[in-house]
Amino acid sequence: MSQPIAIAIHGGAGNIRMDKMPADKQQSYQKGLENAIKVSYDRLAGNGSAMDAVETAVTRMEDYPLFNAGRGSVVDHRGKIEMEAAIMDGANLEAGAAVGLERTRNPVALARAIRHHSQHIMLNGEGAENFAREHSIPQEDEQYFITDHRYDQWVQLDEQGAVSLDHNAPQGGEEIG
Amino acid sequence: TVGAVALDGNGHLAAATSTGGMVNKKYNRIGDTPLIGAGTYADNRWGAVSTTGHGEYFMRLVAAYSVISMREFGGMELTRATQLLIHHKLDKLGGQGGLIAIDPSGRICMPFNAPGMFRASMRNDAQEPLIAMFD
After folding, report:
1. How far does the CA of residue A115 sit from the closest CA of chain B (Å)?
2. Is A34 in contact with B122 (Cβ distance < 8 A)?
3. How many whole angstroms separate alpha carbon A8 and alpha carbon B85?
4. CA of A76: which chain B residue's CA is closest?
5. What is the pLDDT of residue A90?
6. What is the pLDDT of residues A164-177, one digit of tens each?
7. Predicted pLDDT of residue A177
């Protein structure tokens, strides 16, 4: 066989039970996974690099509102979004990471820009998003990220004063980590 | 949390992970996802890893790099290293979650100790992608 090419993705692990997840929701998650794996595999098959493929896959899942990343991220104690991401290149052990992001549409794209254009590995919060703007990494208003489902989940938890992995959160029988 | 690991036609490996973290989290809490070695790691010689679940446990285990070091220094196959990490070390600590990993031969492992994990994989010797959610 020629040089193997392969990709694997995850959309989170946790209290994901068939008996608790309505069929339509299963199909929605299936669709999100299928889209991400096919588009990213096509990148690989088209001679794309492993870095391109993992960035493509994660970007697709960040854009898909059901997964807890990018759009559809869970809501924090302030009622806001706070995202984090990392990417690592096995060829040279180079890496990029960003934490405390509130406006960056695709945190994985910022992590990759940090890896390529900064002398650091991890940038945080306002500084990270200044770097994003300097490198034309798209930013969005807060409402772009917060879905009704995540907002409702947060309201219930906040009333209980609890913090939770989203897969254990209310309405979250099938939710994901 | 979402993640990906890949092997390209030049034999290069890469890993990426992204998350919104925990619901209602406070104090700017940071999880394993952005920490190189805990939630994300890649080395062409040994493998690429992306984790998901209760981040604090993956941080304490330095989970992603632990899989790589079991391969590099312990001579383990990817399957055994990832199973040990999830079903021995994570279990013993009382943590819950999963990981995806790939090695230079294109072998893919996706173990988890939670009721389910959203996951998918595709290789050039397969016709269709594998897509799964439940145990």
Report:
1. 12
2. no
3. 18
4. B24
5. 98
6. 777 666 654 334 33
7. 37
